[in-house]
Design a protein that fits this description.
The chain has 243 residues and is of the alpha/beta class. It has one domain (2-238): Rossmann fold, CATH 3.40.50. Helices cover 35% and strands 20% of the residues. It has six helices and twelve strands. The protein starts with a strand and ends in a 5-residue tail after the last helix.
């Protein structure tokens, strides 16, 4: 099984603390992929043309869109300046939006995490809440907020509602895009997971890849992609041949 993994950048010399946080999360991701015995095809989308990301979509069996910097606000009609706006990566936005749209077009299983969910919503015409409180602990040794999730049936078999999600985000889904359905919320109502109504595409806002939770939370979500792949293959095989 080959999984296409889409990051923004390999390194961030201007933001070493943020890079360290992402590297910590990535260690949990790599451990989960190794446990499954899968092959990871990693693309750092800001460092290559859009075609490199789309080529990786074609090569992979399933897809994983990871976290990172905020989506550039002009993509969804947001204010150019907002609290915590920081650095944006327009080239990665373009590539990741293309990945989402292509995955939906060809019905290839995709999981988006944190920014990955936000990109998914923007790619399909939704908006983002640009700044919020309560789901990130700034300037703390451990920036993660533990959040109990309310899980809908569509995700209940793959996410344990008794296990808290680890959140560290200051943006979230605003207006939900057409074609998406909310399947998990935090106690304050913030959207924590969505699924596409017609394609095998799932987005989660918390970080199941955290090294302390990757085995219990990320591995089942990756296995969900594998199940969706087999289901999609079965549907394709049962379709009548063109006349």
């Amino acid at each position: 099984m080959r999984i296409g993994v889409f990051h923004l950048r390999r390194e961030r010399p201007q933001a070493p603390g943020y890079q360290a946080l992402l590297d910590h999360l990535d260690s949990g991701l790599r451990a989960a992929i190794d446990e499954l015995g899968w092959e990871a095809d990693v693309v750092y989308s800001a460092e290559h043309p859009v075609e490199a990301s789309l080529d990786a979509v074609e090569r992979a069996d399933v897809l994983l869109l990871m976290g990172g910097e905020d989506v550039e606000p002009s993509r969804y009609g947001g204010a150019a300046e907002y609290p915590g706006s920081g650095h944006h990566e327009p080239a990665a936005d373009e590539a990741h939006i293309a990945v989402v749209r292509e995955a939906i077009r060809i019905r290839k299983p995709l999981l988006g995490i944190c920014r990955g969910l936000q990109v998914m919503n923007v790619a399909l015409g939704g908006t983002l809440i640009q700044d919020m409180t309560g789901h990130r602990l700034p300037d703390a040794p451990d920036p993660y907020v533990r959040t109990r999730l309310t899980i809908a049936d569509a995700l209940a078999g793959d996410v344990d509602p008794a296990a808290p999600g680890r959140c560290t985000h200051h943006q979230a889904v605003g207006e939900l895009a057409p074609g998406l359905e909310v399947v998990a919320r935090a106690p304050d109502g913030v959207v924590e997971a969505v699924v596409h109504v017609a394609a095998p595409v799932t987005g989660v806002q918390w970080h199941p890849e955290h090294p302390d939770t990757a085995r219990e939370q990320l591995v089942p979500l990756l296995r969900r992609l594998e199940v969706q792949l087999h289901e999609q293959d079965a549907r394709t095989a049962s379709e009548p041949a063109p006349a």
